[in-house]
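User: Let's play a game. I give you a shape written as tokens, and you guess the letters that built it. Ready? Here's round one.
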């Protein structure tokens, strides 16, 4: 039969639409044509496939070869179509049996020797294949990642010859059987919070942020421990659920580096340099790929030296901070990526960095300080729940040997408070809607009066008012309190440092 039909998957945002690979062999002058909106990487597969077939001792037909990747209006990219194209040519020329091809979906990049190389997006494609009821054949390097999808049937292979032997019934491929997902990687280990000396106020604020999924801005001179605190923040976050881990892993698999199975159930921690562009931060490109905010899914996005970022770059954070999603629109296509990350930002209080330092060496004028802080817009600051000052640690405290709480101890309290939120409203406090705030974040009489005074004196916006209530609700959860008292409101108000200034 001069026609063979196989199935594969494309990547479009977070989706993996089905692609039908049709290979047709006809009489005529020798040619090799790929149609169906292939991009450069797919067009180049002609040379890879030809060399792989010849080096695997198969006959490459000197006839008219046409490969169609349907649907024709869906852009096809990456080298993942090498394997189904090669198998389609072999089946269409009768060199391998074609009776089992429709039972599988195929993806893999071919080396010139016929070996299979790892592909990008294996996790998303395996999820689509599992819904279709077909098994998935892919490179050995992607097997552990693909097997994270529950009820998936994954067959890893190392070469084109191995797959052909399987289809011929000589040496069947072995289904990949992963161990228990909880044991798929080592228990996550993070730097310990006990390594940071002093900064009790900042540690308390980060504990509240971890419990309620709140965003944080730390303001302080250089060397006060802001970066150390941020790097240790993932260690006090609640443990990842299987769904959260799979969602984060799927997002990582779409990146150029792919997903590392050793990071299974480990909170992502992204720290882009302040020279990063808007596209690098939120994603984009002609074939949209996720940016830093999506790669930090269910984890931490740390922006150090916040005012050094281009202001236009920072403004793109406003929408995902509110909605937890980012939509990337291009002339020909649109992609929607989840972006539920926890923002931890740090900045100096002034251009020289030493405003308020006990050394008194700051010489910045009020106008210079105002211009420096003006690089961060009011609407963006309004969306950051907790704004704290991280002061310099005195030399005597820095040199003193002190015993502070470990990350494990803090995480136990965070887990307890987080569980209270899930039991009460099935989500973290930071994600409460206005209607839910009115239901779950009602302070007592003293707290309500205190909040009224704060709004009047500090000119809180409506958004700041709601964020104070959500932070107060988290403080109450850490204290195992059903209601919000005036003490919880008072502590929440003091975490709006830049509003108070």
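Assistant: Ready! My guess for every position:
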């Amino acid at each position: 039969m001069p026609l063979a039909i196989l199935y594969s998957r494309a990547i479009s945002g977070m989706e993996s639409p089905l692609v039908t690979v049709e290979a047709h062999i006809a009489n005529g002058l020798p040619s090799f044509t790929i149609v169906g909106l292939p991009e450069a990487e797919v067009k180049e597969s002609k040379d890879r496939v030809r060399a792989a077939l010849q080096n695997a001792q198969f006959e490459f037909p000197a006839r008219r070869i046409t490969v169609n990747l349907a649907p024709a209006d869906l852009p096809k990219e990456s080298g993942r179509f090498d394997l189904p194209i090669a198998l389609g040519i072999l089946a269409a020329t009768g060199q391998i049996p074609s009776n089992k091809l429709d039972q599988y979906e195929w993806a893999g990049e071919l080396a010139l020797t016929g070996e299979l190389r790892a592909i990008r997006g294996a996790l998303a494609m395996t999820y689509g294949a599992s819904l279709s009821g077909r098994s998935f054949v892919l490179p050995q390097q992607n097997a552990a990642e693909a097997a994270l999808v529950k009820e998936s049937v994954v067959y890893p292979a190392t070469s084109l010859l191995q797959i052909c032997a399987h289809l011929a019934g000589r040496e069947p491929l072995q289904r990949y059987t992963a161990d228990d997902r909880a044991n798929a990687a080592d228990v996550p280990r993070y730097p310990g919070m006990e390594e940071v000396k002093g900064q009790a106020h900042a540690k308390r604020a980060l504990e509240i942020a971890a419990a309620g999924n709140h965003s944080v801005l730390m303001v302080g001179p250089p060397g006060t421990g802001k970066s150390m605190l941020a790097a240790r923040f993932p260690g006090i976050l609640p443990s990842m659920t299987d769904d959260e881990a799979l969602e984060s892993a799927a997002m990582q698999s779409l990146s150029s580096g792919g997903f590392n199975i050793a990071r299974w159930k480990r909170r992502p921690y992204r720290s882009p340099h302040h020279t990063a562009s808007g596209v690098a931060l939120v994603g984009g490109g002609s074939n949209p790929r996720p940016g830093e905010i999506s790669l930090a899914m269910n984890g931490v996005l740390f922006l150090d030296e916040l005012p050094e970022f281009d202001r236009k770059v920072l403004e793109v954070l406003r929408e995902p901070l509110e909605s937890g999603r980012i939509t990337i629109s291009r002339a020909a296509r649109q992609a929607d990526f989840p972006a539920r990350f926890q923002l931890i930002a740090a900045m100096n209080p002034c251009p020289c960095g030493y405003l308020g330092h006990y050394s008194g060496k700051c010489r910045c004028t009020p106008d210079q300080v105002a211009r420096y802080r003006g690089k961060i817009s009011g609407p963006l600051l309004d969306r950051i729940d907790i704004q704290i000052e991280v002061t310099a640690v005195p030399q005597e405290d820095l040199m003193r040997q002190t015993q502070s709480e470990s990350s494990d101890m803090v995480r136990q309290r965070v887990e307890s408070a987080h569980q209270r939120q899930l039991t009460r409203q099935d989500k973290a406090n930071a994600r409460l809607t206005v209607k839910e705030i009115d239901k779950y974040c009602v302070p007592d009489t003293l707290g309500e009066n205190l909040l009224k005074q704060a709004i009047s004196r500090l000119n809180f916006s409506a958004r700041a008012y709601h964020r104070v209530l959500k932070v107060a609700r988290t403080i109450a959860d850490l204290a195992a309190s059903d209601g919000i008292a005036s003490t919880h409101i008072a502590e929440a108000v003091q975490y709006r440092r830049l509003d108070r200034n």
